[in-house]
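Hi R.,

Here's the chain you asked about this morning:
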Amino acid sequence: MKTPSFWSRRNLTATLLSPLGCLYALATRINLALHKPHKVNTPVLCIGNLTAGGTGKTPTAVSIAKIMQQNNQNPHFVSRGYGGTLHNLIVDIQQHTPQQVGDEPLLLTRQAPTVVSPDRYLGAQIAENAGADIIIMDDGFQNPKLHKDLSFLVFDGGFGYGNGWCIPAGPLRESLSAGLKRADAIIIIGEDKHNLASKFNLPVFQGNIVPTPPEFEERKAIAFAGIGRPEKFYQSLRELNFELVETIDFPDHHYYSEPELNELITKAQEKSCILVTTAKDMVKIPAALRPKFKVLEIEVKWNNETELANFINQKLFTSIHS
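And the predicted structure, written out as tokens:
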């Protein structure tokens, strides 16, 4: 789905939908209350969020796994595998398709082994048996089945938490107060335009998503993306001096059909430009067509990576011996 514009403000549409938002928040609270989380022997770190849409959660998870690997640890991801048909397995990037395991697991597995399982507890057991010494949950903050030893909430610094109401009236997956009570720390990605760092009584870590300098020289492009907030991707291209002839939005997690891709290729040929997309979208393009597309890779640069690494190690070390 595309992020509704009224999620950023309380207008008439949001107000009319607010009773449904209250029911959504209540359902989340009941679901959490009805289940007792199960604990595995391996420490579990959750990278979650309170808002629907793109907050930078997946690149954050990838970056934290990289930090753990630099500390000689062996992290494994556990992901729901949104939209995939296969469950309870370790992703093989050479064999599995996004239709089978979801798009985000294919991105995650480029950094560390990734288990897809709607049952996060079972997924954690699979990762544990595969040799993980740290389990990183990509999303799953509202999932009640697996005990988390450390939970981060990721916020987009430019969007904040929108109008403060729950789906469908606003972007929140649960009430702000309820979510913050279960979190251990906050991660803010991008400029903190809503002064979030001063609003939460939790440790705050800040970083920015920065593009990896592209290996291709062409700068006249059609850009397209099926992510939560595609404008952030387009702005990154503009900052790299791309001339964007056109930008095309697709719904988040969109699976591209061959006619759609051929239409994009034809359009680029007619306008004598290249096609640029995100890594998350590129994994959903058939291998035979990928040479027709360029990808802009990104990574998270932390304001204080050492402080973040020390915080994670201290929290997880304490949990192991508690």
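The longest helix spans residues 12-34.

Let me know if you need anything else.
M.
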